Amino acid sequence: MVNRLVKPGAVKFGVYALLLLWACTTIIPLLWVLLNSFKTSEEILTQSFALPQSYSLFNFLKLNEYGNINVVKGFMNSMIISGSVVLGVSLFGGLASFVLARFQFSFKGYFTSIFVICMLLPQFAVIIPNFVIIEKLGLNGTYLSVILPQVAGNLSFAILMITGFMASLPGELEEAAVMDGATIWKIYYKITLPLCFPIFATVSIMVFLWSYNELLLPLVYLPIREMQPISVLLSLVSNAYGTDYGAMMAAITISIVPLLVLYMFSQETVIKGLTAGAVKG
Known about the structure:
Low-confidence stretches: 277-281
Order of helices and strands: HHHHHHHHHHHHHH
Number of strands: 0
Distance between the termini: 32 Å
Strand content: under 5%
CATH superfamily of the largest domain: MetI-like
CATH class of the largest domain: Mainly Alpha
CATH topology of the largest domain: MetI-like fold
Structural class: mainly alpha
CATH architecture of the largest domain: Orthogonal Bundle
């Protein structure tokens, strides 16, 4: 009776209204940061939610006036670190997921629980052991000191996501390849990987975003300013300028533009990867 009284159009309108309100909680702060990046600090404090009186690039140019902040170098460091993390997670996560999804062995069920527990562990709980290991390996102050912990930290998420997707794939193609004499490696690279492109793309994008925004590990393991990513430079801007909110807003705008562009071109891939293995049949 209740279902008859509620019209489908009203339900659809309510859902879209809620989604619009939810989107505003993200879009409005981004627009606020973008508009304030063109204002002076005094204008931000007095007219924070008003339009800029003039769209000047003064705050952006100011970032290049200080020798300890190199935005271009910071971007390059972020690309090197985040790209390497994505490659490592995709390589090792894909191989581990293939084993878990297609092979039967003892204690297989316990691995899922272990990966879930690893995801629940806070980063602060392992920061000291990681630092000791990296110090003993002689990697402190190198890109690997940041890349390896991030690869290890993101593997649990990647394995759980990719394993669920691979398990939903039909096994007939792989069985036919075995009958034709294909090796395990050939089955993985020629059959499984092409079918798993959506989930690999989704995991890669999410891992890239998390690595790009990582702040704690570069601060601890990369004391060399020339090797620090853009996330660390943002914290330096905040500490160096103090009340210069215009410079802060400009630095934040520069750092989030690549992420917005990446998401705009990859949102369909992310959605497909998250939902493709959700329904079987």
